[in-house]
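Q: Hi! Curious about what ABC transporter substrate-binding protein looks like structurally. Here's the sequence.
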Amino acid sequence: MRFLTAALSLVAAFSCLAQAAEPINLGLNYPRTGSYKEEGLAQMRGALLAIDEINAQGGVLGRPLHLLSKDDASRPEKALRNIDAMAADGAAMFFGGASSAVAIAAGERAAQKKLLYFGTLTYSNDTTGKDGQRYMFRECNSAWMSARALGNYLGRTLPGKRYFYVTANYTWGLTTESSLRHYTGTEDAARHPSIKVPFPGARLSDYRDALTQAAASKADVLVLALFGEDLVHAMRIADELGLTRNHQIIAPNLTQSMVELAGPGLMQGVIGTEPWTWQVPEREGSARGQAFVRDFTQRYGVYPASSAASAYSIVYQWADAARRSGSLDSDALVKALEGHRYSLLKGEQQWRDFDHQNIQRVYVVKVKPRDEVMRSPLHQDYFEIVEHMDGPEAAPSLAEWQAERSAAGKPLTLQ
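A: Let's find out. The predicted structure is below.
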């Protein structure tokens, strides 16, 4: 009897160890194909690096992390199927995306399953604004935050200029244009015209038609509210039409991969914003950020882009919340995240409690001349940081957020 008891105890102990060692699945919903696939690749790389580091430190709550991933192709309908499939495979949380339409749709489906969704590249105001909900967190800044920082810089350096907008016709493009119009005083659409192009699926002829109208206008500033390969296609046509030589071009949300795809010669002088660049950790004295840049570069042979930093940060922040709460339960994690302040790859950041927006510094950047880029290591020193704005100043206030929610008929607290 004593032997049987000991044997049963041993079996139970091994069972507990096996259960404790069962991996925790994290679901990455990202664009492996489509116009934003380069941003998706960077997210995958950042996520894998974070998971490997955390597992080397013992995992989370005694269990290793494992990455599940599916291609959303920047299409909401695919994203919904991805969430269903990864939830069926036991995903404990979701993150990723480079389209705000995808992030919003996927976040809503995750919420139906009472699972958290962290947006990586989702700049639309709607993500944490009128479409914000309890289980959605956004790591990057919003269009409002980009526009406030960018508008402050443009108002000082390019006062009184005429603008022409070419805008991707979906939630990110539309809220980006409206926010930038507000902060540059260009609300008058007759003086500052706009052409909307389809997303996804815009043809080269759509960009050519829009940019031909821009060339024929009296505009001084051309705003391309386009992203990923869409921006690259438009820039090539803009160069053919002479717009890159006689207009200041603004791309409100720039990424490293956009400059790489188009080439720094074509992108030289373009102004936009970034929530993070690989130069930021050294600029701000972030030892942890500098280690990330070093380790990422050694592993992949390229500098990390902002989308890689976002995915890396999300994995670490979710893991930290799980450790602090001692739980994988979504509601416990929400409580651990709300209001939490931390420093990881830059200065202090915070997950704001009332809208789950990450409050962080926004950088206005300008693409450097090609010869300067080519003199740099890896030929990837693309951005000059010309201005920055701290997160609390850039982000909408509680009153502004509630006004947006009220106008959309949404509750004044996250549900």
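A: A fun detail: The chain is about 50% helix and 20% strand.
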